[in-house]
Amino acid sequence: MPHHSTPVIADIPSLQVRVSRTRVVSCARKIVDQLAHVSGIVEIEFYGEIGTGLGPTLEFYSLLALELQAAHLSMWRHQTIVTRAEFFPDGIVPQPPSQQNAFI
After folding, report:
1. Predicted model pTM
2. Cβ atoms of residues 95 and 77 within 8 Å
3. Which residues contact 5 (CB under 8 A, 6 or more apart)?
4. Fewest beta carbons less than 10 Å away: which of 24, 82, 90, 92?
5. CA-CA distance, 82 to 21, in Å (whole number)?
6. Using one digit for the tens of pLDDT, what is the confidence trace for 82-100?
């Protein structure tokens, strides 16, 4: 008779972090600095808002990705001037790092 075992599901700790919508990049940097060596799932909660979990966490990472595309950070090469909220028409290509574009 074959032996059937019950799968073991790991109990991964959840870390709740409260962030500001107006300072997404600086909050992300603090999260990385403080939690880089901590094992667990980071759940985001926005100040003054109700809710944590997957929804706010995905929204935080979407907002962060949009902020990191901002032309004023000089992280990306581009041929045309774009505003903060615009996407680069030909995609994004990394800019070589320099002393001048230490964005964070």
Report:
1. 0.68
2. yes
3. none
4. 90
5. 22
6. 554 455 566 666 666 665 5
Closest CA to 71 of 89, 57, 53: 89
Query: What is each CA distance from 29 to 2, 8, 10, 12, 54, in whole angstroms?
Result: 51, 34, 28, 23, 20
Encoded amino acid at 47, one letter: Y
By residue count, the chain amounts to 104
* Residue in the structure block whose two tokens are 């929204």: 59
Beta-strand (E) ranges in 14-53? 14-19, 41-46
Q: Which amino acid is at 73?
A: L
| Domain extents in the chain | 14-94
